[in-house]
Amino acid sequence: MSQTDVTPSALCAAEAPDTVPIAEDLLSRVLEPYSYKGCRYLTDATYRAAADSVLAYGNFSITESVYIRSTGHFNAVELILCFNQLAYSAFAPAILNGEVAALRGWSIEDYYQHQLSSMFIKSASSRFRRPLNPQGFSARLLCHDLQVVERTWRYLKVPCVIEFWDDNGGAASGEVELAALNIP
Questions:
Q1: Mean pLDDT, each 10-residue run in order, the chain (184 residues)
Q2: Whole-model pTM?
Q3: Lowest CB count within 10 Å: 38, 91, 142, 169, which one?
Q4: Cβ neighbours of residue 50 under 8 Å, at least 6 residues apart?
Q5: How many whole angstroms separate alpha carbon 158 and alpha carbon 162?
Q6: Can you spell out the DSSP letters for 89-131?
Q7: Where are any strands of DSSP class E within the chain?
Q8: Top-tier CATH class for 13-181
Q9: Domain boundary assignment for the chain
């Protein structure tokens, strides 16, 4: 995966230009697997989608880590959990609205059914520039150049970049390539 530069943004989800809020009832449904385990970190989000891309902004709060005593800073495990939560949340309204071409055959019920069992992280890298306060921070996610791959397993290749920031200059970023199986 090529290195993509992302720069911290001062925007929070509610201020993200050209994006629309993701309704809390949809967030609650999509994030139920996390709420069930007590680790829903995404508090609100906005999104915009096109035929081959999804953009989302989200606000997060990690009041207590679910797997370790508090380290006092945002770490690699939490980066992936927050990435997953924002990505799952951003794709849900895009599927409801038929915005992503390769997923137009899925209903929202299909998405819920495949959300955990058919979404895989193929590769991931992360970079931590300055310690991030887990009590309150934001993220911008861009999944772009979505492409159906026809191999032994047919899947949707979803290259993503994500950046995190807080009000005190904390910054982290990551690149993740997803594979969505069982696509229409």
A1: 43 70 98 93 98 98 79 86 98 98 96 96 98 95 98 96 97 98 95
A2: 0.91
A3: 38
A4: 99, 100
A5: 13
A6: HHHHHHHHTT-SGGGTT--HHHHHHHTTTSEEEEEEEEEEEE-
A7: 20-21, 42-50, 53-60, 119-130, 137-143, 147-149, 155-165, 171-181
A8: alpha beta
A9: 13-181
